[in-house]
Known about the structure:
Low-confidence stretches: 1-28
Number of domains: 2
Helix content: 25-40%
Number of strands: 12
Distance between the termini: 45 Å
Radius of gyration: 25 Å
Amino acid sequence: MKSIKTVIIAIFVMGLISCEKKLNPEKNQIKQSFIAHTPTLHHKVALEVLNASKKWIANFNEGNSEACIKGYDTKAIMSALPFGVKNGIKAISEFWTPFMQSGATNLIYTNVSIEVANETTAFLSANWSMNVGKGIIYQEKWEKKEGKWLLTYDDFQVTEQFEKPKENTSNAIASHIVLEDAIKASIKWTTAFNTGKSEVCGNGYSKNATMNAIPFASLNGKDNIEVFWKNLIKDGTKNLTYHNPTFKVITNSSVILSSNWSMNIGEGKIYQEKWENINNEWLLTYDEFEVLKQY
């Protein structure tokens, strides 16, 4: 008798659980990942870091060593090959101040790349040149502290020192500007998708663009791509959010974007968005992404 009562109670409990699931269908529904921030927050982080970097370069080229030093965190570490590692703001100041006073100027960044780690951390890399030499920036770690972006780690190398100073008339921050324009185009596209404007999404592609949407479709041409996005929006897809994107300048008219992404229906990986400046308009010419999880 005791075992029969146990079975009856177990069946009753299972029935309650089953009813609860039917009455609360959303209770066990998988929710969108990475929704701790707004859809384009990481784009905006990249723009803020680019702006901080532009100011640092301007201060260097104006000979304002004090402002350059203030661009570092007090506990920053700087690896300046072949000159060694400088620990803390005092050692960093002792490097930059006499270096700038010696006549070093005309600092130019090219092929700038930014990877966003979170809302307060981003990594910048680039090639650099100035009147006395050129080299590689392997990593500038920028962190936002008390509302200000500061360098907490700086790793660069001098690959060539010129025998005589060389003047370069190129725009010192042209690569920054290229990246900013492409990032703003991506923000515009993402905002259009999230507000249901499929036509704007379609117009964000070049006429002969290619889109590889794994595992759904491989499409050629702006019109076909627009139909894809229109149908997806019609089905209720929204809240496209980019996570930890990397923006990299390839040429003065092309930028590559890669990122993790999530929507209300799933999440995945953007392997490559190729943005190109065509007739003064930034457009997607190639777009490859994959859905790794559907909710």
